[in-house]
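dumping this here before i forget
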Amino acid sequence: MSTPLDSGADDAAPPDPVDSPPASIASIAAEAGVSVPTVSKVLNGRPDVSADTRARVERVIEQRRYRRRRSRGSSRPALIDLVFHEMHSAWATEIIRGVEQAAAGERAAVVLSELGGEHRPHREWFDDLLTRRPIGVILVLAGLDEQQRGVLTTRSIPFVVVDTAGEPPPGVPTVGSANWSGGLAATRHLVGLGHRRIAVISGPTAIMCSRARVDGYRSALEEASLPVEANLVRYGDFYVHGGYHHGLDLLSRPNRPTAIFAGSDFQALGVMRAARELGLSIPDDLSIVGFDDLAVTEWIGPPLTTVRQPLREMATTAAEMVFTLARGERPRNERIDLATELVVRESTAPPPRGG
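structure:
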């Protein structure tokens, strides 16, 4: 039989959960030496619990492998939390539309959050999330630490990551796109037009999709027996400023590239502005390929050749995975990369004579 842990025996081995009866809120309260309402407050993310008490209760919850039962027929509105590391772009709008489309079919509301550029939620946000008790969470270019994942699992709140910032831990469902294939297709297109000095401006090095797009670029150059020049490989920020800053530097060089693969449509717009300021014509003097295929790419001059990333479908797929997990089922695949497609428009052409 198991006995309650003595407050001074932190180094004692925890009871074997296999040999113990199923945990309840009452048994957790008794073992942690707190009241049942205190355990309920911790489970619901209430802030009026001291840090030490919260940590003690969470430790017992984890040791006992307690899992909250999913409520059926609850009068609470069904909520799904959609969390961005940054949200101010048309790229984010496509994700939101995809999630809302799936949520509408489940009669669920979407709660939007932004982490201010961070890739891990802070404590206050996490406490608020537990108070809301959503049926699931979708994180975009963001993730959870081990403790946060454990807390959500305990509360039976499933989570899915879209476009992971880093390598996701085992068992974390993810949805992304074929970034390597997209980088390969974009660069192959430029090589096929006759370009030999091709630069790439991807996103931050810390983000997996940035590195994957550059890896696809490298593979296409190596496939064509072209050198990968270190000074032509740049990492920006996925926004206009990153493309503009690196574009000015690359295009001001005496031996400038004749083509640039930008790791996002916004960075491609920045490169276009830099080229025009330097008196270069697109595509006569410089070819540009973007990535994402946002609606604006068809209307700029010239219309942008880009890699179509199925953003809305990625978001819908992630939401459907959350709803599947919330029903206590497992999705058929927990790691999904949707196909990308090169869309050729008017921003690419053969290089200038002698280029």
